[in-house]
Amino acid sequence: MLIDTHAHIFLEPFESDLDQVIERANGAGITDIFMPAIDIASIYRALDLAAQYDGLHVMAGLHPSEIKDATDEQFEEVRKIASDDRIVAIGETGLDYYWDQSFNEKQHQFLRKHIQLAAEVDKPLVFHDREASWDLIRIVREEQEAADDASKIRGIFHCFGGPVDVTEAVLELGFHMGIGGTLTFKNGGIPDAISTVPLERIVLETDSPFLTPAPFRGKRNEPAYVRLVAEKLAEIRGISLEEVAEITTLNARRIFGQPRPSAPSQ
């Protein structure tokens, strides 16, 4: 039994064969798939899918790449839906300095809004981090220090890749690390970056349709391939696939609070 904690299966690459994608995931032992939002439309698309398929779960948030043009009204829409029982986490939020750093301060502001919202509704956060690790860590630390209950600011650093000093800082914050297809890349450095991470602080993900693991690099990623990540992690740690599956699944269920199935559409 495995869980894909991060998959964008609401995107266009899955429109023509989502039934088959879900079937393959189930056949590979994936019982639950968590869908991080990108924008407002993606939240509602994910909710529609979760009403159609068992084991799909929905997050709410604005991806950092969307923040340049994001409005306060859009964030209020996220806030409005965040309390819905069908929403299991706030995300994906975070920081991305790779494409454009002209709106970094606005990214910081919206990141803090997401963190404070997560604490308010007592739901985990799922962070995106691209070339912004130390600013993200600093802001999370500041928000924990300012919070009435720092334990409510918890969750996952998705697509985690270290380096080791960042790994140590994330562990100190009490967050888990989402490990995906990059673990299987040659010379990717991920095994070294997570070598000191207890298995109890790791969850598995695909980031479908992106970051497809070996041996399928260059093709569309999908939730069934989380099994390849689990197999690689088992190989690196010298333990059984069953042990990896058991522990990472328990980790995910603890983070997301044994999520309830989504209610059917009205």
The tally of helices reads 9
Q: H/E order of the elements?
A: EHEHEHEHEHEHEHEHH
CATH architecture: Alpha-Beta Barrel
- The main sheet orders its strands as 1-2-3-4-5-6-7-8
Cα shape:
globular
How large, in whole angstroms, is the Cα Rg?
Answer: 17 Å
What does this structure look like?
The chain is an alpha/beta fold and 266 residues long. The protein has a single domain, classed as Alpha-Beta Barrel (TIM Barrel). It has helices at residues 18-27, 40-52, 72-82, 104-121, 133-146, 164-173, 190-193, 226-237, 241-256, and strands spanning 2-4, 30-35, 56-60, 87-96, 125-130, 155-157, 176-179, 202-204. It has an eight-stranded parallel β-sheet. Strand 7, helix 7 and strand 8 (202-204) form a beta-alpha-beta unit. It is globular, with a radius of gyration of 17 Å.
Chart the SSEs and their pairings.
Elements: E1 2-4, H1 18-27, E2 30-35, H2 40-52, E3 56-60, H3 72-82, E4 87-96, H4 104-121, E5 125-130, H5 133-146, E6 155-157, H6 164-173, E7 176-179, H7 190-193, E8 202-204, H8 226-237, H9 241-256
Parallel strand pairs: 1-2, 2-3, 3-4, 4-5, 5-6, 6-7, 7-8
Task: Tag the structure with descriptive keywords.
eight-stranded parallel sheet, TIM Barrel, 8 strands, alpha/beta, disordered C terminus, 266 residues
